[in-house]
Predict the structure.
Amino acid sequence: MGINIFGIRHHGPGSARSLRQALEALRPDCILVEGPPDAADALLLLAHRQMKPPVALLIYPPDQPQRAVFYPFAVFSPEWQALGYGLARKIAVRFMDLPQFHRLAVEGDSESQISDPESQDSHPESQISDPESRIHDDPIGQLAAAAGYSDGERWWEHMVEHRRDGADLFAAILEAMAALRESALPADQPVEQGGASPEIRREAQREAQREAQREAWMRKTIRVAAQEGFKRIAVVCGAWHAPALTVDAGNTPSAKDDEELLKGLPKVKTQATWTPWTYGRLSYSSGYGAGVESPGWYHHLWTSRDSVPIRWMTRVARLLREEDLDVSSAHVIEAVRLAETLAALRDRPLPGLSELNEATQSVFCFGNDLPLRLIHEKLIVGETLGAVPEETPLAPLQQDLAREQKRLRLPAEALERAYDLDLRKPNDLDRSRLLHRLSLLSVRWGETQRAGGKGTFHEIWRLRWQPELVVALIEAGVWGNTIYEAATAFARDAADRARELPALTNLLDQSLLADLPGAVSHVTARLQAEAAVASDVAHLMDALPPLANVQRYGNVRGTDAAMVGEVVAGLVARVCIGLPGACASLNDEAAAAMFDRVVSVNAAIGLMQNEEHLTSWRGAMTRLADQRGLHGLVAGRCCRLLVDAGAFAADEAARRLGLALSTANEPAQAAAWIEGFLKGSGLLLLHDETLWRTLDEWLTALPSDGFTALAPLLRRTFSTFTSPERRQIGERARRGMAGVSRAAIGAQPRAEDFDHARAEDVLPLIARLLGLNESQ
């Protein structure tokens, strides 16, 4: 019997290549890989011809899918290569880490965050170094520092990942890790944290206990395999764990000790499946990262058997050319030479990513780091999306989404893609319905964008598939087995829980966009019940705009929106009746909020194009405009909206402006009226001489102290105008055109100011121009 320990770096191409060579030489009859035994049933799918990494094992409690744990794999992951080697040769292949049905139960009892997908620990062994490095100093970092490297990542990459010959590599790793573990703090010794809080110390002790249990389970799995009669057992584990798994050595715990440590562990039910993954989710920058800074670069190291720097620089040059950046073959040659020179100066056998990046920035980018961001996103990280076989066990909602994606020709893609949907086309309409249903279920596959100038029958969506959306789908499975059923049930439940009109109207809008008739009728009934007893005019006003969207989309989407007509009519009537009372005695903050509501409701009622509603609304605004003591911001806006609608003529607007700017009103109130009237557009002021003159006379009559106090308010108003409007207003004021000063408009010349002598001097010239005799 022989037990061979292979300590690897997770997602390391050099480790993977050396491991394949070692397995070919050993020809084991059993392979044990650090991973979740919960996934034993899903393991055989790894060898399926449709399986395309990067992929991830997804393990979750059926009753708490939000606690899902991912185990990502790339083609260059040593675990992936070991599992693929064993399955292809019909060798016994098993996972040997502490099962998630124990880990999730323990973490649930201790309220740990390890199983949280946002936690780094939800990706087992995502660091190069010991998980205890969060408590102690990084041991591999210490080795790297001793070797003159800035960090452990670079040291491991140059010493292991760039190797082409794996001979004696794993023996050296085992020896180095054994020395590091001897110098590190023993797992069962309390951690001295100095001034650390008791909670930090307790967490450190819990972490040490979890690691001890994990290694105990691994040793137990190795012993079971040996007892079953396997002669050549290959153990593939994180490098840090390698010394702890030598079960025949005298410095590891006995089987009895391990059994005692694992005794009484709690247990929960779990399910396992495969899900596509992306290289972006393998990077450190992502909350779901798996500890790889440069997965795209590692993929290049794995697939390039020779001339690695040349092939990499060629890919960089091709990418920059696609972005219309000038890169020649001479640039590629010079960049490769510079990278090799940098590696030689640093006493490194081959240029690493840092040398290649420095050469790229110097030769291709002329010192500019902006193109490097593109290279990092497209090449160093990459956005490759994996695929899983059709036979993969999926949750019902996942299966339904896969069918819909195939039917609608809407594939999941890692790169962002824009779709311009024409809702008059059946396929595009079904696409829109699917995306709105997913959004209702909090599966944020895409976001809508403004379709400016394309009418209401166009929607622009930007879609980008993220692996964690699988968890959202599983969570939404409690509402139904199809996306249509789940979205309907969710909307009905949300309507039952909603207690405010805006929430119900938004929900009704979403339900109609998603084409959920069962939900629409239920939400409408709830909306009618709440509207009948609602007394808050602000809530009534907030409820109207979404209902306007309902009526707008009713005809375009082929859905019947007439069922909300009674609700809309009741809301409009109650808003028009209650608006004057709701606008009384407003302070500046409340007036600003009411300003926005008035503008929003005006747009919504205009959008519905119902003459009865328009008449009622304009009557309410007229009453507001005439209301004494109304805040100037609201009064000015009501006047402006009535002018824009044609209900007030320009002379009437000028009259009201004059009243607002009279000396009977406080200057601050007058400035607020001006802001409400003009905010957002200065065209009316530019084209109406009477308004211009009235405002000019008020400004010039202000005392200097009053003008200084009101200047910030006036500047805020004028800042809402467009740049051309501000420029035209400034030019007109500078020229002193008619309407700018009182002397230029409305003032008649006086007889005593007329110079007869100068006029007579001009008469002969005028006679000649007209062809008249001087006598005539």
Remarks:
- The longest helix spans residues 198-227.
- The CA atoms of residues 495 and 523 lie 6 Å apart.
- The two ends are 136 Å apart (CA to CA).
